[in-house]
């Protein structure tokens, strides 16, 4: 298997210099041909997908997971449309980030270039296969895809279709590589191939991400885990606070930008908490409160230290009464995962303080944490949400899949 | 020792939120006080440094290493001036990188913020201690310094002086941490402290950098190794080519942006090689040539495959005759370390092709590779030269020590 993984990585590396220098028109044409390919292969994709769904049901997977896994005509067409939309986005490659002339006449330009080879390690969703391939191609990168075992048949057929679409139209199919082995040994190998892979992006649960961060010698972009807070300041507009909390907790609880924890200023706790907690509970949310919360509302479960650390990804919320903004910021910087954090306040200085001092990829005043998303931010795409500080932070669009180089125009300059 | 290293990292992390929010005036004042401190401690620094120099001589270290290690009044004053110059640089923190308003009225700003805690792992030069501390402080980061054993006494006293200068003037001395243990076990521990350290920057030889890249779970910025090439195209101005090759090879052979390999177009090889090789040999450079080179100049050593891979850091150059620009680019992308590469040519299309297709942090047309440097690029500072593609690439100034965050101003927006 080692040779197999190395071979795939090598082919990606070799093809990467070719795609790196392709112009925008050619890359867009590839994307359009890939999208046509998907639409012309609905039947066979659905057939292969059924095998994965059958196995998942046999294994008794949750209905949510089975739903994520299932492909139908509509979803495959959405994948195809996704590729068309990527074709419409601006090409980041070749853009001049900055340019200046030195006193000795050297003209220096900092120009955007592809990263080279990007490895994407993901779990159950087969649509990630075409999405990730599309974004890597548009940004001039070769890609190595390693999906989860649950979706192996779906991923294989999607990759086959995409590669054939390239080949049939005279493009190099090796730009897209797929690791057709589902165990973690294959991931382990990828993580050591610094010679061939420029960056790894794990997309999935906390376990997968931790495994990659801890074992990879290839640079990693850490994505996703979001233990997001909403802090309701004493001056908050209660109605606004309620709307935002409900949106952030209930609208889609299984995603990383959903709120997991509510912090409430003690000055308003006895007035605000009964209202919001009733609403949350009525909507099926389990409330786990601190001691002070439970003094105000008797029938909520005691929140443990562990609860405050947990990304529930479910209809559960931890609640803590805090003395004021300083305790709120301290709590968030301690328990948060540096993803998305929001303050609800009318106070100018407290809004500024929160936005400045909370250490997270995205900090909000008076808005839902659910907006941390490449599409909602207007990037037109998203390869994941970075929760690390190096390279890219927050929602990652095409630019996160690029590097820069310095291009220097001289006329014989030497260094004194 | 483990507890000791963790304690230092913890103290850095705790202090990092304080320095992150300090304004530019306060950070500059710290730098000025640190520089005064160094100038007021000349005698004791020189005394402690003598211990290191004595030990190095005893161990029979090379005169070059002993020179790098030695501190005198002039060099300490240069360190102090270095801190003053950092105080004069623009503060990158708080700068708005970009800002836009979404259709729903959300105002999004991408703002520069500190990385948090930066670990610098370096070797013999004690001046790195004050330099690195100064750059980290200016960019709002806490720093953990881990110097080489050769300079342990010098580094200790410099750190003591810097920390005391902070404390005496009412600042938190914990912004600067020093690991007072010289073996690699301490480095190994630092490399696993993802909870407390945001990025590690190894500065030193290939062995150190490889060790950190292969073992760190903390994100690393890979620096330094430069197997740099100069390609002389058939249309090159010979005099310009000679000047640039001599500058890049001879002016300072021990640095990463010095040239290590010369590629010459076969159309001009028999005319150009005898002239340049004679000049290089006269200046004490050992020439190791390919078969074709040796057919033109008999008395040069045969270059091995290994030679073409080697960063000599010495008065040695490998020479290869190539068929044309395509072979030159292929050779560079295969043997280079993606640092600095230069083409000497009068041909417009070949210059463009080389600048576009060579994969390196800095690519030059008609200039010496020696310009890849934070000061020469006009950044006013340099923490190292990144040879990786993630985060920062090429000479790193203050901006490379920062991250970004998204600050989002809402008025009650929730996601549909």
From TrEMBL, chains A, B:
Annotated PANTHER family = DELTA-1-PYRROLINE-5-CARBOXYLATE SYNTHASE, GLUTAMATE SEMIALDEHYDE DEHYDROGENASE
Compartments (UniProt record):
Cytoplasm
- Pathway where it operates: Amino-acid biosynthesis; L-proline biosynthesis; L-glutamate 5-semialdehyde from L-glutamate: step 2/2
An example of a GO molecular function for this protein is:
NADP binding
* Protein name according to UniProt: Gamma-glutamyl phosphate reductase
Its Enzyme Commission number? 1.2.1.41
Q: Which reaction does it catalyse?
A: L-glutamate 5-semialdehyde + phosphate + NADP(+) = L-glutamyl 5-phosphate + NADPH + H(+)
- Which UniProt keywords are given for this protein, alphabetically ordered? Amino-acid biosynthesis, Cytoplasm, NADP, Oxidoreductase, Proline biosynthesis
- HAMAP family reported for this sequence: ProA
One Pfam family, short name please?
A: Aldedh
Cited NCBIfam families: PRK00197.1, proA
- Which residue intervals define the domain Aldehyde dehydrogenase in the entry? 11-280, 309-406
* One example of a Gene Ontology biological process annotation: L-proline biosynthetic process
Biological classification of the source? Bacteria, Bacillati, Bacillota, Clostridia, Eubacteriales
Q: What does this protein do?
A: Catalyzes the NADPH-dependent reduction of L-glutamate 5-phosphate into L-glutamate 5-semialdehyde and phosphate. The product spontaneously undergoes cyclization to form 1-pyrroline-5-carboxylate.
Record field: transmembrane: none
Enzyme class label? oxidoreductase
**Which family would the database say this protein is a member of?**
Belongs to the gamma-glutamyl phosphate reductase family.
Task: State the organism named in the record.
Answer: Caloramator mitchellensis
